[in-house]
Design a protein that fits this description.
248 residues, alpha+beta, three-stranded antiparallel β-sheet, two-stranded antiparallel ribbon, 9 strands, 42% helix, globular
Length: 248
Amino acid sequence: PGALLYKRGQRAAEAHTRKVCPEAPKASVWIAADSDEGRAYWDALQLMRAWTKANHEAIHDLVCDGLGARPRDRFWNEHNFVFRRSDGLYLHGKGATPAWADYAEDAQGLTLIPLNMSEPVLITRGLDKPGALGFAPHGAGRNTSRSAHLRRLEGRPPAEVLAEETAGLDIRFFADTPDLSELPSAYKNADAVRRQIDAHGLAEVVDAVEPIGSIMAGDWQAGFRAERRRRDKSRDQSRKASRAAKRR
């Protein structure tokens, strides 16, 4: 839903910018915030935010129920999102998490910065650094694109790579097939990123969630690809049988 909303917002922004600034590059298009479309887009973003938060809470509740545990604290924040500051300025936090206290009505003063599946999740208090527009990283960030990382690992058995990079951790994939593009080696050095957060005064690390394991989505597309191949093969066989029957 979020991706589809973004595409509709992008089309609206391109249409608006063509009217008011046709020479603007495609990467710089915008929607007028005080227009009907601007207000509708912001409202739709808030629905996506609420939907995403509800999904997180549902997953956390299921885990707590399964473990027989009672949650003591609950932290949540969005990233890679559009934020509105108290002065009305909109900020697109790509690769960033908000690091100012009142970034949302339900803000708790703390935000999460997950580094990678084998490193701690940082619980931070933002320092609202003006030079960073008030943001901190939303994680360690990628070294390369997903496809480039997968090419680098080409030829190596997935189980071998997974065991090497996540030794001592219980790593599971919802789609069964491991997604090697999510392994720690795909991301920047977690210790270096943590030092940079401190050195640049972006956020104060107040606690950390130490990893025991991780449940990832996995390569969910692998199942679709296999099913598509099965359907294509079945369709080809049906066509051959049909042509053979006509010849007879």
